[in-house]
Amino acid sequence: MNLFVIINLLFVSTDTIIILISLKNIYVCDLFRIDMKTFILFFSFFIFNSLIRAQENKLEKRLHFTSIGISFSADNNERFLKAIDPAYQFVIDDRDQKEISRFGYSTGVTIDYTLGKLQFETGVLYASKGFNIKESDYVSGSPNPNPNDPIKQRRVHSFTYIDIPIRILYCIGRQNWKFIPGIGIIPGFMIKNQEKAFFTYTDGHELKVKGPMPNYKKTNLSFTLSLGFQKQLNDKFYFRAEPIFRYGMLKLTDKFIAEYLWNIGLNFGCYYRIK
Asked: What is the residue-wise DSSP string for 190-252?
């Protein structure tokens, strides 16, 4: 039995018509007389219904395709410290007072495969992460400080990764605007780590010293969660903006204090449908 939509067309004149319309068939019952006004209304509805169905079929065909895009994420980077031995909790408390967030970013090429309402994403990203140690008074290790020693110091810890995002996004909405929550993991491979130390002297000049930091692991695995929006620009291009959270699940070192990198950022992407 087909699903019927009952349309009652009541006119001021004595002409009254009840038209029963199904998805595939049209039945007219109790038809006394069809004037030109009724015919035009009936014909317009038929055309409108056909166009809607054609548009839905066209949309369904678009739900399976591959896209390539460029993404950029501006991130606020932090680190989380955990004492392996509770006796070192005082060290964490001290570092939490000194270490602050650092601006970072990730950018690269991503590939999306759309399958119905699901989008599967992967790619290759260049990511800059780390944290800062805020400026403090310079403390000499000598019992007799040199008057030529610096008076202030601050440090920057930076880590450069090649990240491989593996995410699943769910599209909510069928129009040009879509809401896209996402979840996934990001294997990361450290290609560079560096500490920059800045020393300020009494005459105002600043000395910069930099070098690699030893004993940091070269691989990481981050959990990622996002909530964003996607805008269809035309048949080929769409744009995405999403707040995104990433948390490193593997510790950076095997010392008595475990360090974990995490960040929260705003990710932008522009994608082109290639298939």
From this structure: EEEEEEEEEEE-TTS-EEEEEE--SS--SEEEEEEEEEEEEEE-SSSEEEEEEEEEEEE-S-S
At residue 45, φ and ψ (nearest 5 deg) are -65, -40
List of residues 6+ apart from 114 with CB closer than 8 A: 63, 64, 65, 66, 67, 171
Q: How far is CA 264 from the centre of its chain?
A: 10
Name the pTM for this structure.
Answer: 0.73
Residues 80-111 pLDDT 10s: 999 888 888 999 999 999 999 999 999 999 99
Q: What domains are defined for the chain?
A: 5-60 (no CATH), 62-273 (2.40.160.20)
Residue 37, classed as helix, strand or coil, is: helix
Length of the chain measured in residues? 275
Q: Please name which of 7, 3, 1 lies closest in space to residue 19, comparing C-alpha atoms.
A: 7
What's the Cα-to-Cα distance from 196 to each of 38, 190, 216, 217, rounded to whole Å? Answer: 81, 17, 16, 19
Contacts of 254 (CB under 8 A, 6+ apart): 215, 217
